[in-house]
Design goal:
Length: 248
């Protein structure tokens, strides 16, 4: 019997794939966690955008933190033209904010304000199929909980979401807040890291009175990876990881 070879999905983040044997395992769900301002949305959107742009892998971005039009503007600062890829049906952005805050939306894909769990998951499934997406981003898990008005149901929702993602076979990034990574609390609800097959922590460390960004791979199934903290920067062209940089 030949050796089992894991198919890999390129992250689109310079330097990062060197840390995970060439990319994320195909069809995997990765949790990107960290405190506010650590770069989670940028990391997730870069994965989606570069997948569509460089590797011809269409992507769905479900934005629950900011309106689609604001996300486009923010990402344009990196030179990423999301609108062009949307026109080419390589990216679909699902606006999950407008209805919740009571604003009208002119987007093609909009989540209604009062969707239940099943409808929410079904809608995402439909958009993935509509553009034959190979990648999916959901930003963020706490915002799903906020929509539910019942945080105790988040466990059930995440388990259902995980089942559907595995069934779809897309490579997915979910983002969540890490309230206190220094003390080991790396996700808001404590269940996110268990449903994900990979966990990437983005955080800051104080270095000579300056805050420096670092990345730590807490878990990645089917992958040999280091448990060191690697420096990264958010440059004019997005996130860059330095695998041979000074480890904190």
């Amino acid at each position: 019997m030949g050796r089992y070879v894991v198919e890999r999905v390129k992250s689109g983040i310079p330097g990062f794939d060197d840390l995970i044997q060439g990319g994320f395992p195909k069809g995997t769900t990765v949790l990107v966690t960290g405190p506010t301002g650590s770069g989670k949305t940028t990391f997730a959107v870069q994965f989606a955008y570069k997948g569509a742009e460089l590797y011809n892998e269409p992507a769905v971005i479900v934005t629950l933190e900011e309106r689609a039009q604001d996300l486009r503007k923010e990402m344009a600062t990196f030179g990423w033209d999301l609108e062009r890829l949307e026109r080419e049906k390589k990216i679909a952005i699902v606006d999950g904010v407008s209805a919740v805050v009571g604003l009208p939306s002119e987007e093609q894909y909009v989540l209604e304000g009062n969707l239940n769990t099943e409808d929410f998951l079904r809608y995402i499934y439909r958009v993935v199929k509509a553009i034959n997406a190979k990648r999916l981003v959901i930003d963020s898990i706490p915002s799903i909980a906020f929509r539910l008005h019942d945080e105790s149901r988040i466990r059930e929702v995440l388990l259902q979401l995980n089942t559907i993602l595995l069934e779809m076979g897309v490579a997915s990034i979910l983002t969540t807040e890490a309230p206190d990574p220094g003390r080991g609390k790396i996700s808001r609800y404590g269940i996110e890291e268990y449903i994900a097959r990979g966990v990437v922590l983005l955080d800051f460390v104080e270095k000579e009175v300056e805050l420096k960004r670092y990345l730590l791979i807490r878990k990645m199934r089917e992958t040999k990876h280091s448990m060191k903290k690697y420096p990264f920067e958010i440059t004019e062209e997005g996130i860059v990881v330095y695998p041979s940089g000074e480890v904190y």
